[in-house]
Amino acid sequence: MDFISVTFIGFVIILSCIYFIVPDKVKWCVLLAGSYIFYMASSVKALCFLIITTIVTFVCGRILGSINERQKKYLDEHKGELSRDQKKEIKFRTLKKKKWVVAAAVLINLGLLIFLKYFNFIGGNINTLFGHMGIGERVPQLNLLLPLGISFYTLQSIAYIVDLYRGKCQADRNIFKFSLFMSFFPQIVQGPIARYDHLAHQLYEPHKFNYDRVTQGAQLILWGFMKKLILADRIAVPVNLVFDDPGSYQGFVLFFAAAGYGLQVYADFSGGMDVARGVAQILGIELAVNFERPYFACSISEFWRRWHITLGGWMRDYIFYPLSLSKAFANLGKRTRKIFGNYVGKKLPTFLSMFIVFLLVGVWHGSSWKYVAYGVWNGVIIVSSILLDPYYEKFLKKCKVNTECFSWKFFQMVRTFVLSSFGRFFSRGISCMIAVDMIKRTIMHPNPWVFFDGSFLELGLEYKDYYIIFLFILVLLVVGIMQEKGVRIREKIAEQNLYFRWILYIGAVVVMLVYGSYGPGYSVGEFIYQQF
Amino acid sequence: MTKRQGLRLAVFIVLLGIILNAMVGVFGFPPNDGTVSIKQRFGQFYSEPENTWDCVMVGASCVDRQWVAPIAWKDYGMTAYPMNTARQPLILAVNVLKEVREKQDVKLAVVDIRGIRMAALKPGDVQMRNILDNMRYSKNRYEAVKKMISFYKTYFARDDVKDGEKMLKKLDEASLYFPFLKYHSRWKTGLYESDFVGVTSDMKGVYELKAFDVENVKPTKVLDERKELNELQISVLDEIMDYGKETGLEILFVSSPSQLTKNEQPEITAAVDYLESKGANVINFNTDEKYQEIGIDFSQDLYNGHHLNSRGAVKFTNYFAKYLHEHYQFEDKRGREEYKDWDEAYENYVKFYEAGWKKAEASK
C-alpha cells in the first residue's frame, strides 16, 4: 500500500476512526492489526521475515531481561555478603552471557538482512574474483525477496537488543505489543528508525481523540504530499532522463541532474517522513524527527547531522561510540601517535570509526559498489576536513576572512550543497565507474550556455514546470528559514483567524492536486527510501 | 471532539468538497477546436428541459455532420438531437442511450453503424474520453467506464489485433474513472473561459468547425461484397438490439452517407444484412439509389471523404427528417412556449449557414 494513494488515505481514516472508538484497553491491538494489514497489503511473503525478526528479537530480549533481573536480584539479595571483586566477577560473567545473547540476536537479524540484501552482490563479486583466478562461477545468483522496510526494522531490533544489553530499557513481556513496536505501519516502510524507549510506551498507551493534534497531523501529511508530488516527482523527470543516459550530457546539465537528485531525495524522503509523522500524530504518537533542513548545513558532517537523523543517531550510538571507545582503537591511537604525531594519533580512532560509519551508511543504502563509493566519498570529505581544519583556519586568518558574517555562512552552505551534490553521482549513477565518468565530464566540460539555449527544456519538463520547481524551492526555503529561527510554523498557523487558516488549507490541497505530478503522463514513483 | 469542533470540521469538509468539485469541473475535458463541439453538445444535453426530445442520434462524427436538428424542427416540429462523438465507440451506444433516457423520454434512437468496422471498434484514448469525460458522474457513467475497459482488454487481447500488448500497458484505468487525474496538468497547456463557465450549443448540436469546407471526392463505388462479422462485432450489435427490446425503445440503424472505400463497405453491408436478418430497422444510405434520392453531390457536399459539409447536411436532413416524420409520427410541437429555444436555434442556424457560405465564397 503506497503512502501516496487514495487507498492509504482511506486506510488511515478508517483505522483512526476504529482506534478512537474502541475501548482504551484494545487500542494497541487496533494499531497492531492495522500495521499487519498494511504490511500484508505490500507483500504477504515478506511478512514471514518480519515475524522471524520480531520473534528472535523478542526471545533474545526476554533472555537479556531475565539475565539483567537475575543479576540485580542476586546482587540485592547478597548485598552485604559479596566483596567488591566478587561483585565484579558476577557482573563480568553476566556480561559474558549477555554478549552471547546479543551476538545471537544480531547474527540472526543482521544475517537475514545481509543474506537477502547483499548475498547476490557478495556472490557476484566472489564469482568475478574466481573468474580472474580461472576458477569459474561458483556462487549461484539467487532470486531473493527483499522484504519491505527490512533495513529499517533490522536496525530497530538491534538497537533494542543493545539497549537491553546496556540496561537502558526493560525487556518487553508481551510479544504482541512488541510486534507492534516492530511493525508500526507509518514508520516501517522508510523510518524513522525508532528507539524502544521513545516509541514503545507511546504505542501501548491509549490516546484519546484530540482535535488540534489531528488537524496538525493532517497538515503534516498534506505538507509531505506536496513535497513528494509537486517537487520530488517533478524533478525526477529530468534527473531520470540524464542518469539513464549520462553519455549524452555533460557539464552543468550533469551537475544539475546530480543536484536535482539531491533535492528529489530530500523532498521525497522528508515528504515521506512528514506523512509518517503526520499519521502517527493523528493517533497521538510522536515519531522522531528525521530531517532538520540539511541544505542549511555549513559542512558535510553537519549535513549528516541534519539528514536522516535517526540513521545517523543509530550509527553514532551502535557503531561509532563502541568502535572509537573500544580498547583496540585506543591502543591503535597510542601506537600511531609515535608515527603521525599527537594530533593525528589522537584523532585516528575517531577518523577510523567515522570512516567505517560512513562506509556502512553507504552500504546500508544498497548492495552495489556505487554505494560503497558513496560512503567513501562522504567519509573522505569529513575526515579530511577535520584533518585539514588547523591549516584551513590558519589560511583564513592569513587572508583575513571574516567567518562570522552571513556571506561566509552562505558560502559554506553553497560549498556543502555542491559537495553533497557531487556525492549524488554515486548514489544515483548506474554504476560506480559511470558516476566517476560523470563527475569527470561535469568538471572537464563546463558549458554555461546550456542555461540560455533551452537545453533544460529538452529534459522532459516544460518551462512552466521549472517555475513550479523554483517556486516550491522558494517556499521550502522560506519555511526552512522560519524553522531555523525557531518559529513553530504549525503553531503559528493555528494562531491565525479561522478564515485565513481555511483558505491556507484549501489552497494547499488545490495546489497539490493541480500542480502535483501524477496521473497519465507522469509516473508517481514509490518513495526512494522505500527501496532501501 | 466538542460539538463546535465537529460542526467546524463538517463545514470545512463541505467547503472543501464544493471547491474540489468546482476544480474538477474546470480541469476537465479540454474545449479546443476539435473537441469544443462535443463539449457543447453534452453541455446542451444536460441543460435541456426534461422530456422534450423525440429522438436521439448516436454514432460517430458523421452524425452531427449530416444532421441539422433546427431544420427538422422548423419543417416538422420534431426534436431530434445528435449525441454522437468523433469515432464514438459503438460499444458505448447503449450507455449513451441510457444517459439520454435519464433525462429525455425519447421514442426513437437512430444508431449509426459506421463504427461497427473492426478498425473503428479499436478503442483509442481520445475516442473513449470524448464520451466518458463528458458524461456526468453517475452509475451509468461508472458502468460505461467499466464496460469500456473490459472491451479495451478484450479487443487488444485478440490475436488479429496488432500491438495488443503495448496497448494493454497504455491503458490508464484510474483516469477513465476519474478524468481529473489526466486533466489536472492542463494548467500547462492553458485553460479557457469555457472551462470555467461551461459551454452549450445554441444550434442544438449543429456541427460548426468545417461545415463550410468543400472537397471534391470520388463518389462511392457501391460494391456487393460482404465481410463476415466476427463475434465481437455481432455482440456489439446484439447488445443495442437487446437494449431496444428490453426497454421498448425503437431503434433505427443507419449507415450514414459518405464516401466508403472498398475496405469499409463489406463490413458495413454485412452489418446491415445481419441487422435485417434479426428484424431490426435499418437504412443503408450508401447505395446509388439513396445517394440519388438525397441528392448527394460528391463534388460539393462533403468536406472530406467521410463527412458531409453543411450543404450536404441540409440535403440529408431534408430527406431524413421527412422519413422520420412519415414513419414515426412525432408530435408537432412548434409554437409551444417550452420549445422556444428550438425556434431560436433555427434562427441562429440560418444566420450561421448564410454567413458561413458567404465567408467561404469570399475566401475563394
Radius of gyration of chain A: 25 Å
- Judged by helices, strands and strand pairing, the structural class of chain A is mainly alpha
Order of helices and strands of chain B: HHEHHEHEHHHHHHHHHEHEHEEHH
**Class by alpha and beta content of chain B:** alpha/beta
Number of helices of chain A: 21
- Overall 3D geometry of chain B? globular
**Oligomeric state of this protein:** heterodimer
Average residue pLDDT of chain A: 89
User: Looking at the structure, what is the overall shape of chain A?
Assistant: globular
Portion in strands of chain B: 5-15%
Q: How would you characterize the overall build of this protein?
A:
The complex is a heterodimer of chains A (532) and B (364). Chain A is mainly alpha-helical. Chain A has 21 helices and no strands. In chain A, α15 (369-387) runs antiparallel to α17. In chain B, β6 (302-304) and β7 (307-308) form a beta hairpin. Chain B is globular. In chain B, the strands form two sheets. A five-stranded parallel β-sheet of chain B has the order 2-1-3-4-5. A two-stranded antiparallel sheet of chain B has the order 6-7. Chain B has 18 helices and seven strands. Chain B is an alpha/beta fold. Classes of the chains: A mainly alpha (532), B alpha/beta (364).
Question: Characteristics of this structure?
Answer:
heterodimer, A: mainly alpha, B: alpha/beta, five-stranded parallel beta sheet
